[in-house]
Design a protein that fits this description.
Blueprint (H helix, E strand, L loop, with lengths): L1 E3 L2 E6 L6 E3 L2 H40 L5
Antiparallel strand pairs: 1-2, 2-3
């Protein structure tokens, strides 16, 4: 591994030429943010399902299909 000048956490792979980041703290922050986004997306989908169910129940009440 060859250190990249001016970037203490970056190294160049000698075989592939790829730049690799060895900053584990930034990686952990990125993964936490990614997991939080996925959780928020899941929660949003659950809320959408709940709202759809509420709408169907309200329509049934308005139409009197279950209450007659």
């Amino acid at each position: 591994m060859i250190p990249v000048k001016g970037f203490p956490n970056l190294y160049r792979d000698e075989k592939t030429g790829a730049i690799l980041n060895y900053d584990s703290q930034s990686y952990n922050q990125y993964m936490n943010a990614k997991n939080n986004r996925e959780l928020q997306k899941f929660e949003l989908e659950e809320m959408k399902k709940d709202i759809e169910e509420i709408k169907l129940l309200l329509k049934e009440i308005i139409n009197g299909s279950k209450w007659n």
